[in-house]
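Subject: for your reference before the review

Hello V.,

The reviewers asked for a structural picture of the protein, and I figured it would be easier to keep everything in one thread rather than splitting it across files. Below is the amino acid sequence we used in the manuscript, unchanged from the supplementary table.
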Amino acid sequence: MRRVVCAALVGLVLAGCGVRPSGVISGVEAPDGPTRAAVPVLHFVAAGAVVAVGRPGGTDVVAALAAGPTPEESANGLTTEVPASAAPAESRWTADGIEVDLSDDLTRLSPLAVSQIVCTVLAGEDSSTATVTLRGGGQTLRRGTCPS
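And here is what came back from the structure prediction:
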């Protein structure tokens, strides 16, 4: 009997917590579209392959790639194939995916430099649906996946 009384008291205390029932409260619509990772993920080159490196920084990821790895990252064998002439770059979302306008001709980029840029731009995005279009020097290149 004592257990029943204790359970009833606990139930009453919990039920009286001050929250009153209400109708549906409408709010703003949930955000849609692209989201960005809190820490940008840059892709550098190590042993001929593209590897991801998390690094806090600015919004022009092409400029960060062109600037190259930090001394510590270099000591760990990381390099960049993205030339300084590729930056600054502007990127934007369109109906077709992400477009990146480079400051240099695409023909000057090595395949690894293209992979670095595409993988970095796709990092933190839904890469199953996003397509990256690189533009520069009158050239256009479309990639749907990170080839690393």
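For the response letter, the relevant points are probably these. The CA atoms of residues 11 and 130 lie 51 Å apart. Strands lie at 41-46, 49-54, 90-94, 97-101, 132-136, 139-143.

Happy to draft the paragraph if you're swamped.

O.
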